[in-house]
């Protein structure tokens, strides 16, 4: 089936660039473009004879060496004799000399982090920047007056910290670089970083750096479609084509393309109008093309080859004339631009009568196409949608492909690996030769003279047998022999054992190892690497020399870092312009704004107007280990000398830009020195005031001492007089109190005496009355006795002789 249809490359030149836009949109025009690109890269008698095959083989050779899997046929041809290697029993496995250097460079460069910095460059942004700078300069010029006003009125008139105001142009530039950051720039940086993160560009960056080291060229691609939004893709240089250029940045390329092998089922997605018969025919073209031009045809399965098709995805740059009808309103003077077709070309009299004119503008446009290689099938040809155009130069359109080959010469890219290949081959040859030498090494032997091993006559009738001689030699290393024979002649076999010392190839091994070391050293030299950079520094070298050697290696590989920066910056520029595409479609707009504004709500309002601004994108590269170590050394030295404070060191370490960090270090040192000088002057002034105040205080103390002594004497004399007066007063008071007390005592005594006399008289009267009452009572009782003739009465008390609390029981005794 595949033999019925043959893929072929048709000789074709590029069509007319100045054809009308209507003609450029036709498939016939697009097919001519695709066939011209195909002829440019695949014209030749075979795959290796084509421009694409030549470059593919070269790039594949470099990648094989970079992975330590280069072909070994060249080594066999080098060591073979008339093509015969039957006697070479060697291990032909290539030794991975180059991969170590590739890993060192790639991994070292990938440690450098890129920071995107967006600077708004449109007129409005520049005006705002100038206004802010003018305000800062005005505040810096009137700093002292504003400080006095603030102290007098208590009103803060500074828009920023007065201690951070710049004092000269250099400080002003650094201040604007570090302090001024409008929200629109923050919004743009946030949007670009979000798109890089969504596309996992960190992994893509590693592959791009690896391509730079191995192939000397790397490509990336940006695109936008309504299904996937903004995409960033890695493009393999093995399958990338472009117009001839000698520009390392490929800025003058007018077409780009990729050769892709896709399943046949993908064709319907590209062009749904294809019939089944067309699909079958396209598949046959694909099989025929793969047999002729695919370098991996024999390595793939028959099923894979049958169901896949080789397609050419390409972009073509041309120009397009934009026609407008410019109409001026005579009453208001307003101008109205109406888009028209290219065929719009009215006669001059009609334009004069209608008060309008025909205006044209030529712009760059890119067409997007897909072609089945080796056939006349053009699956897609259309004006590219969402072309990237700078706001400041909308007539130019940027390509979707971005590439860089810093070591390009006449269209051919050199690489670090390509420079090392000749010396890697010599190292491999030395390794194989070393195997040959080792294989031919023989152990030392012993020459045994058979005649010398005959029985030795000991002279006493007995003989020393040869077995005893062998046993003695192998056990002790000694030999018994005779210098002459029995007949008295010289015995030539008197030493039956002689050591045979072979040349063990030590000199050859040393020479091969030295040769291998020489080529390894050359591999490092052509790559610009040093032993310190490869992780094997000379143990006898000083640390400072090792750091200088590592720094030299960084300088030698700077072009690779610059290429990565260029691609990263160009992609960031294109992404910045594609934000407008995202905001244009409602399907992506809200979701994108939510992702950007997830952590900063203020940016949401700014991001809506992002497409109105024009940005300049800069890439700040984080310092490498050596540069960061040098900066840290400067910081530590400044800290030890107390030129900066700890807070200054923290701020300096957070600056990613090494140049800006060093400027900030110098600025903080200068500010700290000024503060210290100001403090020293203030301290001197304070000390002078303190001395003056101390003198005044001393004089006041002296006067106060004299006054205090005078007052003390007066107070002492007054105190003595007051004490005497108080003493007299106290004595008078005591005497008065004593006389009053004595009078009281006399009065109390008189009262007691009078009361005693009164009580005695009262007691006498009471007793008299009692006796009278008793006598009356007794008399009454006697009368009653007489009248009633009762027994005699006893008038003594019988226990009831207490009246009124007074006992009368002893009255009889008192009477006695």
Description of the structure:
The protein is of the alpha+beta class and 816 residues long. The chain has a domain at 677-786. Helices cover 53% and strands 14% of the residues. It contains 25 helices and 19 strands. The strands form 7 sheets. Strands 4, 5, 6, 7, 8 and 9 form a 6-stranded antiparallel sheet that branches. Strand 2 and strand 3 (229-235) form a beta hairpin. Helix 5 (98-110) packs across helix 10, helix 9 (183-198) crosses helix 19 and helix 10 packs antiparallel against helix 19. The protein is extended, with a radius of gyration of 60 Å. The N and C termini lie far apart (185 Å). The model is unreliable at 537-552 and 811-816 (pLDDT under 50).
Q: How many strand elements?
A: 19
Q: Could you give a short account of the major beta sheet? A: 6 strands, antiparallel
* Radius of gyration, whole Å: 60 Å
| Average pLDDT, all residues | 79
> Which regions are unreliable across 5 or more consecutive residues at pLDDT < 50?
537-552, 811-816
Question: Keyphrases for this structure?
Answer:
816 residues, alpha+beta, six-stranded antiparallel β-sheet, three-stranded antiparallel β-sheet, 14% strand, disordered C terminus
Question: How would you briefly describe this protein structure?
Answer:
By secondary structure, the protein is an alpha+beta fold. The chain has 25 helices and 19 strands.
